[in-house]
Amino acid sequence: MIIVTGATGQLGRPLVEQLLRRVPAERVGVSVRSPEKLADLAARGVRVRRGDFAEPESLAHAFEGASQLLLVSVDATGPEAVARHAAAIDAARAAGVGRVLYTSHQGVSPTSPFPPMPDHAATEKLLAESGIAYTSLRNGFYASTTLQLLGDALDSGKLYAPEDGPVSWTTHADLAEAAAVILADGERGMAPFDGPTPALTGPRALDLSDVARIAGEVTGRPVERIVVPDNQWRDQLIGHGVPEPQADLLLGLFRASRAKEFAETGPTLGDLLGREPLDLHGFLTESL
NAD(P)-binding domain: which residues (predicted)? Predict the structure, then answer.
């Protein structure tokens, strides 16, 4: 049985839907904090059980009988994130899970200025030391982030942000489908990736000037990209009510992109999908 965590999220839910196209429902289970939110999946034959990484005792029942576990990284950073991932890995080992697939990132690095990247590096280290077979999905940067970065720029016509660098924007939908392909292959005894995968990315790496240009093309409303100093941008965020730790995290994204930590592209995602991944123009056309 394949168990998917985080199945109510932007990645987990479409991943389950993709799995159900490839694997019988009785071979699919989900581990979620609020099972009542997935009553529709239960009605379709998916096993829905409560599991919370913050409550390790809940995971034995949630992971019971799993041949593969899709471990979706938590929406947290720092020691809290790593501790929750460690709890899930420990529970997977205790449950006899055959393979863990972890949603890591193409920019994984213990020294990255973007806080989630060291967390991914620490989690990959835990997996490597766990004794469990694992696959680390080196996912590209979620294209949905561009919508947050654009903010009100479509109305104002001006996109203010610190200096940035190229990013391999990649959609949740494509990454969910690719993970489902790998999991379905695993159920047939195939393991195309052991350890970290190559970068799973969209076709091109684009910076915010490109994002602004494409957004203008899609909407017919030109957007000017304006670079502002790091500290000025951070102070503006805090002045608008963003907590300082969150402002620092967001600033880390720009610093990491300037170092080209998210610039790698490659063919692996397209190979898994059997088609070209959706590019940023296509994503923004669908989203704006």
Answer: 6-144
